[in-house]
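REQUEST ID: PR-0412
SUBMITTED BY: lab tech R.K.
PRIORITY: routine
TASK: structure prediction, single protein chain
INPUT:
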Amino acid sequence: MGKFIEVFKIRKFFEYNWQIRDEWFQWCEQLSPEELNKKRVGGAGSILNTLFHVIDVEYSWIRGIQGKEDIVFGSNDYDTLEKIKFLSDQLRIEIRDFINTNIDHDKDDLVSVPWDQDKYTADEILHHVVAHEIHHIGQLSVWSRELNLVPVQANFIGRKLYFKLD
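STATUS: complete
OUTPUT:
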């Protein structure tokens, strides 16, 4: 039962990140393309590049766990909010399938990826991917405050990610 609960929890954190990301996409609709691409301190340099970076990192690590070749996406090909949202939606289909069907297998196996010399367990990578996006959510929140705008609410509580057990 413990392994089931652990897998269930990491799935919920992926769902949380995806909800937040979708809310940031919606939040970004109020900004001009210039503001979305404006160079900023921290993150991946701009709001759009940070969103792209989060999506790219998530996908690359999940493919690494699966032993699949990394697909490198060029940020220049995803230079609008619409293109980045489309990429997120498309890659999420594959990631969700993996998270829902294969995540509980071989979590202690060591994983090698071409961009890093070290090896990590699949479990360690899954937790890294979740924490990585949460880190960048914080960066987006700082930038929103700099723009005198209210950031996306990042609370986990109240998102109805858990169901009640009777």
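NOTES: Residues 2-146 form a domain with the Four Helix Bundle (Hemerythrin (Met), subunit A) fold (CATH 1.20.120.450).
REVIEWED BY: pending
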